Amino acid sequence: MTKSLRELWQYRALLWNLTQRELKARYRGSALGFLWTFVNPLLLMAVYALVFGVIQKSNIPHYTYFLFVGLLPWIWFSTSVGSGASAISDRRDLLTKVRFPAQVLPATVVATNLVNFLLSLPLMVGLGALVGIWPNVHALAFPLVLFAQLVFTLAVTFIVSALNVRFRDLQHIAQNILTLWFFVTPVLYIPNAVPEFARRLYLIANPMAVIITSYQGMFYEQRWPHWRALAIVTVGSLVLLAIAARVFESRREEFAELV
Asked: Distance between CA atoms of 93 and 96, rounded to whole angstroms?
């Protein structure tokens, strides 16, 4: 893992340039341009708020804000994994012409969506202000939760993108898995909706559940995250990232041939 991270650091200029390029190209030619960074999560929030806040009314106070707090980090994760699955297999032009560590490509996808996530945070704060909820001292835990999600997202994206080079169906399977994963993660509901006997296992088996509830704890419930659960997820994510780095090392020689 240290070798992969060291290579990413050595090629940080390339990573940043590719991230800027991706950000500029994503909405090139569209009428709203970069404003789609804010419009997309707002539209998605509006759909879920209509269904679960109006039609099938939820008893969660300020449901729209609650939903938005969980939706933003989920979009970062799901978009990174979904788009990152084909990050290597679709970039033959770069892999065969320029010599650089292949992990830069999925890392670029994660970094691009991280920038979108961070730029959307003022929207979340503004929406909270409308319902009378302002960030307080508990928001100081934000960098720790952000780090945990960054490591976990990188690890999953690295593994999926490396395996997808040989098993191209994986990018399509990943989209369906992410859909299921979304509904078993407490974005639309609170963890108390899960039966008590299964709640602990549910949180342990789903790292994104711990991460999402940590964001909700800081910004919606205004409490500290559950430190023990967050620590377990962070350590587990670091282990998973080490495994992902080994997968990359074992398969990187065949990337140029298979793409």
From this structure: 6
Query: What's the sign of the alpha-carbon dihedral 77, 41, 139, 195?
Result: negative
Instruction: Identify the H or E element spanning 220.
Output: none
Closest CA to 71 of 121, 135, 115: 121
Residue 91: what pLDDT? 66
**Residue 201 phi, psi dihedral angles, 5° rounding:** -65, -40
pLDDT of residue 150: 96
Average pLDDT over the chain, rounded to an integer: 82
Give the end-to-end CA distance of the chain in Å, rounded to a whole number: 24
Domain ranges of the chain: 2-258
> pLDDT tens-digit profile of 197-254?
666 777 778 999 999 999 999 999 999 999 999 999 999 999 999 888 888 777 666 6
Considering only residues 51 and 236, tell me which one the structure prediction assigns the higher pLDDT. Answer: 236
CA distances to 76, 206, 225, 256 from 161, rounded to whole Å, are: 16, 21, 31, 14
Q: How many CA atoms lie within 13 A of 237 on its CB side?
A: 25
The per-residue pLDDT for 80 is: 93
CB distance 217 to 225 below 8 Å: yes
Residues 6+ apart with CB under 8 A from 205: none
Separation in Å, CA 84 to CA 6, 88, 165, 196, 255: 20, 8, 11, 35, 15
pLDDT value at position 63?
86
- Rounded (10°) angle between helices 142-164 and 63-84: 30
Q: What is the largest CA-CA distance in the chain?
A: 56
Task: Please name the amino acid found at residue 109.
Answer: V
